[in-house]
Specification:
The chain has helices spanning 2-17, 21-33, 35-38, 44-61, 65-91, 106-114, 117-137, 139-166, 172-203. It has 204 residues and is mainly alpha-helical.
Length: 204
Amino acid sequence: MLQYLLLGGGFALAAAIQPGPLQAFLVARVAATGWKRTLPASLAPLLSDGPIALVAILALSRLPTWFQHALRAAGGLLLLYLAWVAFLQWRNPTNSTSSRSAPRTLLEAALVNVLNPNPYLGWAFVLGPSSVAAWNEHPSYGVALIVAFYGTMVLSLAAFILLVGTARFLGPKRQRALVAVSAALLAGLGVYLLFSALWRLGAV
């Protein structure tokens, strides 16, 4: 079970601190109304990801085992690619969290996440195949992976909101440090996912 807890928590942490549309929304929201009013927006992934997760798990559970492992391997390659993108961003930092008009409700925050391609890619290539594989080993493993992912995601987003709210905006050095941590996490998870999937493919 530990490997699935680490996979879910590590992927969530990398996703939460990686600059993107949701993080830009959170910064804009804090700037407009303060961190206290923004804090509920950390729950946005719980609202937006449900249908995506359900479709991904139902579809993947009907696929042959070898194809599920192949998707996991593709997910490992995707994570390695995202790690490379994060590394390039670390080398050439830009202001990825520029202010924009801030949505005012949790539902609008969830809409921001629905329109973000990352949840779809994550569930299609990483969380979906891994959840099905974990469930096939033991149902509690699949539940543990999903709980670890969303628990870590919500807590990380809440911590991000508090950090932005108390420090106002993250300085360039802290932004680069977060990007470096994200790149390292994505690379490590990508290598693990790729090699574990290849090993299981060889055993099929």
